[in-house]
Design brief:
The chain is built from 16 helices and 25 strands. By secondary structure, the chain is an alpha+beta fold. The protein folds into 5 domains: 2-161, GAF domain (Beta-Lactamase), CATH 3.30.450; 178-328, 2-Layer Sandwich (Beta-Lactamase), CATH 3.30.450.40; 359-441, 2-Layer Sandwich (Beta-Lactamase); 447-514, Signal transduction histidine kinase, dimerisation/phosphotransfer (DHp) domain (Helix Hairpins); 518-675, 2-Layer Sandwich (Heat Shock Protein 90). Helix 4 (135-177) runs parallel beside helix 7 (300-329), helix 12 packs across helix 16 (643-653) and helix 13 runs parallel beside helix 14.
Length: 685
């Protein structure tokens, strides 16, 4: 079992077929002390030995020769039958028939098929002492053979994938070299790069340029001049047509890179060469060739790759030839074509810009009112934004509008949380049978802004009217009243002017926040002292309503990071709100704490009251601008609905957030989260 585990670990790690088979062969030989273990794999040309592991000190002459290519031997029978065969080894060689059951160990040849996915991929051949009755060892070896076959199959797929990737990268690199429209530069770039795709000693290109047959060569290894001429004639023999070009009878114009490698005629000759014709459609363009001087011959895969490269080269040459023709025969037309091309490109850019900039949903209908074309906004509206019943309703309305498009339809349709302004126009004024274009403009935000504007004007008018009326009254009293009451009148005037100032300051704060002019320079802010001061500021107002104002400010709470004045504005607003909405006899508690969120430390400030609370349906809206709840109106609490909106935006500018929990009749709890000081600085705007 240890052998299986060790072998499986090596199988899982190794991806190279040679290394994999050699490792397994050596491990089996060492584990059982066999004389020799061989692995051979099936290829197109037959069995190929991949690994041999032989015991140290074993004389080759004492073993039968390893000859997997013999067609009538044991290995052939194993490949045919897909069965394991054990044969004794006689002094004259292995028996030609399967072994019969024997007692004890004897020197045998054990051949196991390597089968993966129902296909025999090779054999595992073992020479050494075997006990035919030891079925346990035989089953173990068969299991190892099965695992080896699967691993070999996987490694072959991996190597094939890697080879495919290498070929793809080489072809991609080759294609990038083919982007030039300069016909003279294509061979220079191509032929040197071709060696990365298929190793070669000479790469050649034969092509007809302006009626002249030209050959181009890149020579990596020294070669004789006679061999080069012979290769040139071989290329001409492979010209991709029934007859060679007319110019074939004329001298070939030769261009050689690395000409120093061309030696006298008696220098090394060529061993093998392959040729791929160049076609564009059915038009022959030339021949692409590679050759080798050494013993390694080309394979079928090399010719396939060369043909693939030839397709790219043919396209590049065709493009370059067309470019030359355009330059030669259309010099006068070129400028006009370029101008027209620029004009078309600009027009296309303008059209695309218009289409991309349309924020409305656009739907095109046929004469029956059926939708035949939509833009992205319309598809988003119909497919993702609307419920199924709303979608069907809107489609029916679009059909109705398109059929009345000639009347100049302009309507507003109300959907859940959405208001759409519809305009329908016929595509052709003279031919209404072409259909119509329906444009849906989302005016929900405009309606909401209009509602907010109305509410804002109403709130601000009320808030302005009250202090101004009071100021006018007390100014009149100041003028005509008793001198001993002037101090009281001045106190009221000061209160009303402060109230008016606060209203205007809120509006200005909101304007600055909207304009992005509020910049926060974070500094450590000690909240204990800040809150203690705020509690004293608001203590008189709390006492006037018989409210108990308490604070829990542990000294160990670290400073917060932020702008001191902005934090004062936030907390003062929350404490003032708590006082306003807590009935007499209630209590307000302010607490400091710490917490962590997303790995960052935060300081928390909680303002809790025992006030009237906030209805659950109003909680999602209390931070909306100009929102005022039912309790505010019932208690006649002055305000514009801007305070909490400003609080939320200031807190978020500090990279923090605010939370609220409330229950009607039980009170409300607001918690502000601010980053603790000493954290990496944030860009706070």
């Amino acid at each position: 079992m240890a052998l299986v585990n060790e072998t499986m670990r090596e199988i899982a790690i190794l991806r190279n077929v040679g290394a994999l088979t050699q490792a397994v062969a050596q491990r089996i030989q060492a584990a059982f002390g066999y004389d020799r273990v061989c692995v051979a794999l099936l290829e197109e040309t037959g069995l190929k030995t991949c690994a041999i592991a032989q015991a140290p000190g074993v004389d080759d002459r004492a073993l039968p020769p390893w000859q997997p290519e013999i067609e009538d031997g044991v290995i052939t029978r194993v490949l045919t039958s897909r069965q394991t065969i054990l044969v004794p080894i006689s002094p004259d060689g292995p028996d030609s028939t399967p072994a019969s059951p024997l007692a004890g160990e004897q020197r045998c040849e054990l051949v196991l098929p390597l089968t993966a996915e129902g296909q025999v991929v090779g054999v595992l051949d073992i020479m050494g002492l075997h006990d035919p009755q030891d079925t346990g060892r035989l089953e173990l070896l068969e299991a190892l053979a099965g695992s080896l076959a699967i691993a070999v199959n996987r490694a072959q797929l991996f190597e094939a994938a890697e080879a495919g990737q290498r070929e793809a990268r080489a072809l991609y690199s080759l294609s990038r070299q083919m982007t030039s429209l300069d016909l003279e530069r294509i061979p220079e770039r191509l032929l040197g790069q071709l060696g990365d795709l298929i190793p070669n000693d000479i790469a050649g290109l034969l092509v007809e340029i302006d009626g002249t047959l030209c050959s181009f060569f890149h020579i990596s290894q020294p070669v004789g001049g006679a061999a080069l001429k012979r290769l040139e004639r071989n290329m001409l023999d492979h010209w991709p047509a029934l007859t060679p070009p007319v110019s074939a009878t004329a001298p070939i114009q030769r261009h050689v890179q690395n000409a120093d490698n061309v030696l006298p005629d008696d220098a090394p000759a060529l061993r093998s060469d392959i040729h791929a014709p160049l076609f564009v459609g059915e038009q022959p363009l030339g021949v692409l060739t590679i050759a080798r001087i050494g013993p390694m011959e080309f394979e079928e895969a090399d010719l396939r790759l060369l043909s693939t490269a030839a397709n790219q080269v043919a396209t590049a040459i065709e493009n370059a030839l067309l470019y030359r023709k355009l330059k030669a025969y259309a010099a006068g037309l070129e400028q006009r074509v370029a101008e027209r091309t620029i004009e078309i490109a600009r027009q296309k850019e303008r059209t695309e810009a218009i289409l991309h900039s349309v924020a409305d949903a656009v739907l095109v209908t046929d004469p029956r009112g059926e939708i035949v074309l939509t833009n992205e906004r319309a598809r988003h509206l119909l497919d993702r934004q609307l419920r199924a019943e709303e979608r069907e309703y809107l489609i029916s309305r679009v059909r109705e509008w398109s059929l009345r498009a000639s009347e100049g339809v302009e309507e507003i349709v109300e959907l859940s949380g959405l208001a759409l302004q519809a305009r329908a126009t016929p595509i052709g004024e003279e031919d209404p049978s072409l259909g119509a274009v329906v444009v849906l403009n989302d005016v929900s935000r405009l309606r909401e802004l209009d509602r907010m504007k109305t509410q804002f004007v109403s709130n601000v008018s009320h808030e302005l009217r009250t202090p101004i009326a009071n100021m006018k009254l007390y100014l009149s009293l100041l003028e005509r009243g008793k001198p001993e009451r002037r101090a009281r009148y001045l106190e009221v005037l000061l209160h009303e002017s402060t109230r008016l100032e606060n209203l205007i300051e809120n509006l200005l704060d909101l304007s600055r926040l909207d304009a992005g002019r509020v910049q926060i320079i974070p500094r450590p802010v000690v909240l204990q002292d800040l809150l203690a001061n705020l509690m004293e500021v608001h203590r008189q107002a709390a006492a006037a309503k018989d409210l108990r104002l308490e604070a829990q400010l542990p000294p160990e709470i670290p400073p917060a990071s932020g702008d001191r004045n902005q934090i004062i504005q936030v907390l003062s607003n929350l404490i003032a709100n708590a006082i306003s909405y807590t009935p007499p006899g209630g209590e307000i508690a302010v607490r400091l704490g710490t917490a962590e969120a997303e790995g960052r430390p935060y300081v928390t400030i909680t303002v809790a009251d025992s006030g009237v609370g906030i209805p659950s349906d109003e909680l999602p809206h209390i931070f909306d601008r100009f929102f005022r709840g039912r309790q505010a109106r019932a208690l006649a609490v002055p305000g514009t609905g801007l305070g909490l909106a400003i609080v939320k935006e200031i807190v978020e500018l500090h990279q923090g957030w605010i939370e609220v929990e409330s229950e009607v009749g039980q009170g409300s709890t607001f918690t502000v989260w601010l980053p603790a000081a000493g954290q990496p600085s944030l860009n706070l705007h």
